[in-house]
Amino acid sequence: MGIEMNLVSRDKIESMGSMEKLRFILDDVKSGNIVVLEGGLTAEEQMKLIELTMLEVDDNFPGIEISGYPAKRSLLSLRKKTRLTVIGPAAKMRTIKKDEDLISAIISTT
């Protein structure tokens, strides 16, 4: 059995409210999917996603793995977002290397 990977455009993510966006991501990841967000999440959204995840951790859902490219430095941008964020079930995804332009992860089908 394969793993579904959903590549979500910046337009789709930006059309959602913050809680709607986080619920969309968490529901998808709880279904066993890997979610890749173009444009990523703010630091506040990432913290809130982790909070929501901790409330839902159980034997069937061990949590999430989040990895993202850091935001480029900008003097005008007050809310920094990652450029790309990869989110997956902790039981299936493990980040092994990350720098400003490369994320390497191992995806397991078990």
List the helices and strands and how they pair.
Layout: E1 5-8, H1 10-14, H2 18-30, E2 34-38, H3 43-56, E3 64-69, E4 84-89, E5 93-98, E6 103-107
Parallel strand pairs: 1-2
Antiparallel strand pairs: 2-4, 3-4, 5-6
Helix pairs in contact: 2-3
Count of DSSP helices?
3
Number of structurally distinct domains: 1
The oligomerization state is single chain
Biggest β-sheet: count, sense, barrel?
Answer: 4 strands, mixed
Q: What is the global morphology?
A: globular
Strand content: 25-35%
Straight-line N-to-C gap: 9 Å
- Poorly predicted regions are none
Spell out the helices and strands N to C.
EHHEHEEEE
Report the structural category: alpha+beta
What's the Cα radius of gyration?
14 Å
Structure description:
- By secondary structure, this protein is of the alpha+beta class.
- The chain has one domain.
- The chain has 3 helices and 6 strands, in the order E-H-H-E-H-E-E-E-E.
- The strands form 2 sheets. The protein has a 4-stranded mixed beta sheet.
- A hairpin with a 4-residue loop joins strand 5 and strand 6.
- Helix 2 crosses helix 3.
- The longest helix is centred in the middle third of the chain and has 14 residues.
- The model has no long low-confidence stretch (mean pLDDT 85).
